[in-house]
Amino acid sequence: MPSELPEGVAEVLIQESDLAQRVRELAEEISRDYAGRRPLLVACLKGAFVFLADLVRHLRVPVEIDFVRLASYGSGTESCGRVAITKDLETDPQGRDVIVVDDIVDTGETLCYLIHTLRARSPASLRVCALLDKPARRRRAVRVDYLGFTIPDRFVVGYGLDCGEKYRELPFVGIVK
Ligand code: IMP
Ligand code: MG
Hints:
Distance between the termini: 16 Å
Radius of gyration: 16 Å
Number of domains: 1
CATH class: Alpha Beta
Low-confidence stretches: none
Order of helices and strands: EHEHEEEHEEEE
Helix content: 10-25%
Largest sheet: 6 strands, mixed
Number of strands: 9
Shape: globular
Bound molecules: inosinic acid, magnesium ion
CATH architecture: 3-Layer(aba) Sandwich
Strand order of the largest sheet: 4-3-2-5-6-7
Number of helices: 3
Mean pLDDT: 94
């Protein structure tokens, strides 16, 4: 019901039960693919924290978890735009099966940069798991191995995603006004 939506949120795009089901499916896929291994999940702060927390509780393989934080400084002309790591890994990814966990792939700039940075540190394997994909605004080709939902070109919040640090706590993904 629209009257129950928080101020500033126009509509629900993905409801809580659909998120829960899709996250379970992704966890199932990852568990199958990584059976017998112990992948290093690298989650991007802050947006991926809710997705990560739900995902790991449905995995059937042991994992190690670390976090990175990236800041983008607009669109650059060089490869992968102008992105910087403002909080780096505390785990050495060399020789590890790394899975990057992110909230949403929009232009692809930040993920492109992170993937190139991680690849230079010689992981045994490197895959990407993203909850949402907004292909309309893509500038860098990014291969997403585990994808939750493809969404239209709208600004979304909730389930970890924010708009000016608001709405991260919403249990659904909604479209802002
Ligand atoms: P990209 O580098 O353009 O792919 O942007 C990636 C980051 O921008 C995501 O990890 C989000 O933190 C943020 N972002 C992009 N689109 C949205 C949105 O619709 N809502 C909230 N955050 C977004
Ligand atoms: Mg992000």
